[in-house]
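Lab notebook page, bench 4
Experiment: in silico fold of construct C2
Operator: M.H.
Input chain length: 177 residues
Purpose: comparison with the prior construct
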Amino acid sequence: MKEFNTNDQSGDKKDNQFTIMKDDPIDGHPGYSGGGAFSLENLSPLIVDPNEDKVWVDMGAMHARSEVEKRIKFVTDKEEVPNGLPYWIVWVTTERSEKGPYYYGVAASYLEVDRPAKRGYKILAEHVNGMDKSLKGRHVLDKIDPHSKKLLREFLQEFNPQYWELASDELKALLAD
């Protein structure tokens, strides 16, 4: 048995490389259905700022680098951010039906940010789960406050009236006054 030796110069060393595959490497493979894979192409993160009465699309949130999250150290204890301002990252997934595109899944995730202190509160698992639920067509809006809910509803209606019109009655009821 050969022992591990970091100073081994024998040439048996393997190169660590990444293989980048273009397109679908298993396309046409009869034994693989692609189960468990999601496309993020139809997912957009919205930032709801109830402090400034604003809502905007911020693709940086896909990697926890939204304008709100930049240069902030996040903690999981709300007590460490006593002067934090509330924000919502809302994960919105669109799909296409026979009638046209519509809002398919919408899930809101909470965070607080104290910009002067460069501290914030969020539970990363909640954000990941919200993204996942949105991708699966679920609506998770039970924790969002009424003012933020109103801002979100108005944004979704104005952003694309057709998407709103074709959205489920469940989503419309969840965002109703």
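Observations: The CA atoms of residues 11 and 17 lie 16 Å apart. Confidence is low (pLDDT under 50) at residues 1-8, 13-26, 28-33.
Next step: discuss at group meeting.
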